[in-house]
């Protein structure tokens, strides 16, 4: 796996400019429901409709459903199974986001028809980040992760199943709006956000600081924060702040 991760880093070293593909494929593991996929597709289109250049959104939610999940590269369930970590932070065995992206870099389909990936998995996610010693290590969990060269992966498991959400007395429809927001946030990174040097927060990546009002590109490290942010966006009738909107319209 270290060799595969090295390929990703070498790719980044050779390509200082943002990667621009002309399509994004949306896929899921078999346990992810259709209403979740509808929310994800809606979030991607929210950003894509504002972005320059706009790309083709290809919904492949049924890809691999009839395949043996043990067959290499034939379903997202196979990717998920190959990226499992011996870690469990309350929502079952976790998937390593860096491992999934490393596998994508190797797939023949990606090489024959280059595209961005939007993957929705049914297991909890984890990602590498710098620890207090300045070393890369897996953190507690993440809702999603983006490699701008390849795409993003998200998991709805915490959003739909966290017992703490009950105190907000919100509906499943509201939680699907959070998933839509999450997908839009991750695709926003692919679309080039946040590249500016103002109204910027550096927190596990470049995020909107919210100086121009509510914005879905703000960082959120807990479900409580995501819910509060979404309520603010609803109240202000603003999902994307003027600075992020301008960046999308001007293009990468």
What does this structure look like?
With 252 residues, the chain is an alpha/beta fold. The chain has 2 domains: 2-192, Collagenase (Catalytic Domain) (3-Layer(aba) Sandwich); 194-246, no CATH class. Helix content is 38%, strand content 18%. It contains 9 helices and 12 strands. It has helices at residues 2-14, 34-48, 76-82, 97-106, 108-112, 157-161, 172-190, 223-236, 242-250; strands at 23-28, 56-59, 84-88, 93-96, 116-120, 125-126, 128-130, 136-138, 144-147, 151-154, 200-202, 206-208. The strands form 4 sheets. A 5-stranded mixed sheet has the order 2-1-5-10-9, with helices on both faces. The model is unreliable at 1-5 and 11-16 (pLDDT under 50).
What's the short story on this structure?
By secondary structure, the protein is an alpha/beta fold. The protein has nine helices and twelve strands.
User: Helical region count?
Assistant: 9
**SS elements, strand count:** 12
Radius of gyration: 17 Å
Low-confidence stretches: 1-5, 11-16
CATH architecture of the largest domain: 3-Layer(aba) Sandwich
Strand content: 15-25%
Report how far the terminal alpha carbons are from each other.
Answer: 31 Å
Series of H and E elements: HEHEHEEHHEEEEEEHHEEHH
Mean pLDDT: 89
Q: Specify the biggest β-sheet.
A: 5 strands, mixed
Structural class estimated from helices and strands: alpha/beta
Overall, the morphology is globular
Please give the share of residues in helix: 25-40%
How many domains is the backbone divided into?
2
CATH fold descriptor of the largest domain: Collagenase (Catalytic Domain)
Enumerate the strands of the largest sheet in spatial order, edge to edge or round the barrel: 2-1-5-10-9
Task: Give the class-level CATH name of the largest domain.
Answer: Alpha Beta
């Amino acid at each position: 796996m270290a060799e595969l991760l090295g390929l990703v880093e070498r790719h980044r070293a050779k390509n200082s400019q943002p990667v621009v593909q002309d399509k994004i494929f949306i896929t899921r593991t078999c346990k992810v429901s259709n209403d979740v996929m509808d929310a994800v597709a809606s979030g991607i289109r929210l950003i894509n409709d504002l972005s320059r250049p706009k790309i083709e959104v290809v919904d492949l939610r049924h890809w691999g459903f009839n395949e043996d999940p043990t067959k290499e590269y034939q379903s997202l369930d196979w990717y998920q199974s190959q990226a499992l970590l011996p870690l469990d932070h309350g929502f079952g065995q976790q998937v390593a986001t860096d491992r999934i992206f490393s596998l994508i870099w190797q797939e023949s389909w990606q090489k024959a028809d280059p595209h961005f990936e939007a993957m929705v998995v049914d297991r909890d996610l984890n990602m590498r980040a710098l620890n207090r010693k300045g070393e890369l290590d897996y953190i507690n969990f993440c809702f999603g992760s983006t490699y701008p060269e390849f795409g993003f992966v998200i998991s709805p498991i915490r959003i739909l199943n966290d017992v703490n959400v009950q105190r907000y007395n919100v509906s499943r429809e509201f939680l699907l709006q959070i998933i839509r927001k999450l997908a839009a946030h991750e695709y926003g990174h692919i679309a080039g956000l946040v590249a500016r040097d103002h109204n910027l927060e550096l927190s596990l990546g470049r995020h909107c600081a919210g100086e121009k009002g509510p914005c879905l590109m703000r960082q959120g490290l807990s479900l409580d924060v995501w819910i509060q942010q979404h309520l603010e966006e609803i109240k202000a009738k603003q999902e994307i702040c003027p600075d992020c909107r301008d960046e999308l319209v001007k293009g990468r």
